[in-house]
Design a protein that fits this description.
Homodimer. Keywords: Isomerase. Its EC number is 5.3.1.6. The protein has 233 residues and is an alpha/beta fold. It folds into two domains: 135 residues, Rossmann fold (3-Layer(aba) Sandwich), CATH 3.40.50.1360; 76 residues, Alpha-Beta Plaits (2-Layer Sandwich). Helix 1 crosses helix 2. The protein binds ribulose-5-phosphate. Ribulose-5-phosphate binds next to helix 2 and helix 4. Ribulose-5-phosphate (5RP) binds next to helix 2 and helix 4.
C-alpha cells in the first residue's frame, strides 16, 4: 500500500469530490489548502469545456479560480447553489465541523447554507472523536472586542469549556483582518462537550459575527488517508 503524504491525501479527497460535479451546476468553492486542490482540478475540467458557475468563499479562492478561467459570480446573484465543496479543520462522526483556520468561516457558512449539498474534503488528520482539538475560530466585530471576548468566555464556561481566547494576528502587532473587515478570536478551549449549546450561545452574542462550528451543514466528508478514501455520512 502506498502511503499518501498529507498534501497527497488532500488532493485525493479533492479528486473524489470532483466526480460529484455535473455540467451546468452552480458551485460553492471553499477556502484553504484542500479546497485549493479542488479548485485546481475544477480549473482543468473547465479548460476541457465543463460549464459551471461558481461562488468563491474568499478573495483568495476568487483569485485562484479566476486565474484558472472558472466562471465566477456572487452569492447575491446566485443565492441557491447546487453543491459546495470545502475543507475543514476538524470533523467528527456526526459530521460536525470546526472551520475558519483560514479565516473565511463567515463566507464559508453563508455559501454552505445556500447550497443544496455541502461536501467536505479532508485528510485523515482532521477526523476527531471529540470536537475541540483545533482552536475554535470566532469572527468578531472590531468594536467591542474585549466585551465580546468576555462574553465568549462566559458562554463557553456555561457550555463546559474554558481556555485562552487569542486575537489572531498576521504578524507581530498586526491583527488578522477577514475579507469582511472583522477580527478573528481563536478559542483554545480543548474538548467541546456541548458543541450545539456553544454554537447557539455564541451566535447570541452581539459582537460575534459568526463562529466556526458548522453543525448540520455537511452531507458527507470525503476523507483520504493511508488506507485510501473513506466517506463519512
Ligand atoms: C478556511 C477553512 C478551511 O477549510 C480549513 O481551515 C481547512 O484548511 P486546510 O484545507 O488548509 O487544512 O475553514 O476558513
Amino acid at each position: 500500500m502506498t502511503t499518501l503524504s498529507p498534501d497527497e491525501a488532500k488532493r485525493a479527497a479533492a479528486a473524489e469530490a470532483i466526480k460529484l460535479v455535473r455540467p451546468g451546476m452552480k458551485l460553492g468553492l471553499g477556502t484553504g489548502s484542500t479546497a485549493r486542490h479542488f479548485v485546481d482540478l475544477l480549473g482543468g475540467l473547465v479548460a476541457a469545456g465543463l460549464d459551471v458557475l461558481c461562488v468563491p468563499t474568499s478573495e483568495e479562492t476568487r483569485a485562484q479560480a479566476a486565474a484558472l478561467g472558472v466562471a465566477l459570480t456572487t452569492i447575491d446573484a446566485e443565492p441557491e447553489l447546487d453543491l459546495t465543496v470545502d475543507g475543514a479543520d476538524e470533523f467528527d462522526d456526526s459530521l460536525r465541523l470546526v472551520k475558519g483556520g483560514g479565516g473565511a468561516l463567515l463566507r464559508e457558512k453563508i455559501v454552505a447554507t445556500a447550497s443544496k449539498t455541502m461536501v467536505v474534503i479532508a485528510d485523515v488528520s482532521k477526523h476527531v472523536e471529540i470536537m475541540g482539538k483545533f482552536p475554535l475560530p470566532v469572527e468578531v466585530t472590531r468594536f467591542g472586542l474585549e466585551a465580546t471576548r468576555r462574553l465568549i468566555r462566559a458562554r463557553a464556561e456555561e457550555a463546559g469549556c474554558a481556555g485562552e481566547i487569542v486575537l489572531r494576528d498576521k504578524g507581530p502587532g498586526q491583527p488578522f483582518i477577514t475579507d469582511n473587515g472583522n477580527f478573528i478570536l481563536d478559542c483554545h478551549f480543548g474538548a467541546l462537550p456541548r458543541p450545539e449549546q456553544l454554537a447557539q450561545d455564541l451566535s447570541a452574542i452581539p459582537g460575534v459575527v459568526e463562529h466556526g462550528l458548522f453543525i448540520g451543514l455537511a452531507k458527507a466528508v470525503i476523507c483520504a488517508g493511508p488506507g485510501g478514501i473513506e466517506i463519512f455520512g
